[in-house]
Write a structure and sequence with these properties.
alpha/beta, Rossmann fold, four-stranded parallel β-sheet
Length: 201
């Protein structure tokens, strides 16, 4: 059977658009039937499309991806998938955004060595960049909190009749659920308001 060329596309959520990756695959000449698309995050490899693709791939097939981060979420995962594909499955990989990462070229020892070095460097840089972004986000949130910025949803305002119904509940004349119902809030919300008052005392 003739060797196949497959294109693997991943977008992080159903809201993201895969068009850019699809266009790149078509320009490379990949048949529509050989395009595999996953619409979920790369946080793990329980991705149906990728799993199906792994079962299909045979030695000397070629897998095309737009960028190296389509293979995993961190340095270790990218390297592990690269090893699985090139060594165990004996598949060639082409990374469109990085022409040096094309295992069809230079199958000799030097070509393989250069490809492996470039891959490790790129994976390390990609992970370092992600960690730096997360660090800046965390620092930004901490700075905002220090300035008194509140995060999350704004607490629900207590209706004017809350105090009266709370007193009725405390006196045992109505249940908490009945009080919450009259206030038009969830039972949990009513109890949270009471607990907040108790902790403020």
């Amino acid at each position: 059977m003739e060797n196949q060329i497959y294109g693997y596309i991943r977008v992080s959520s159903r809201d993201q658009n895969e068009d850019r990756q699809v266009i790149a695959m078509r320009e490379f000449g990949i048949a529509e039937k050989n395009l595999v698309i996953d619409k979920q995050s790369g946080k793990d490899f329980a991705r149906p499309g990728y799993r199906r693709l792994l079962r299909k791939l045979k030695p000397n097939d070629t897998l095309v991806i737009k960028s190296i981060d389509r293979l995993g979420r961190n340095y270790d995962e990218v390297l592990e998938q690269w090893r699985l594909l090139t060594k165990e499955k004996q598949v060639d990989i082409v990374v469109l955004d990085m022409p040096l990462l094309d295992t069809r070229k230079g199958r000799d020892l030097i070509g393989t060595l250069i490809s492996d070095i470039v891959l490790q460097l790129l994976s390390y840089v990609a992970q370092t960049e992600r960690e730096f972004i997360h660090q800046r986000q965390a620092e930004g949130i901490a700075a905002a909190k220090a300035r008194g910025v509140k995060f999350g949803r704004k607490p629900k305002e207590r209706p004017a009749e809350y105090e009266h119904l709370r007193d009725e509940w405390r006196a045992g004349r109505i249940s908490a659920r009945a009080a919450a119902r009259q206030l038009g809030v969830a039972h949990r919300t009513f109890m949270k308001w009471v607990e907040q008052e108790n902790s403020d005392c």
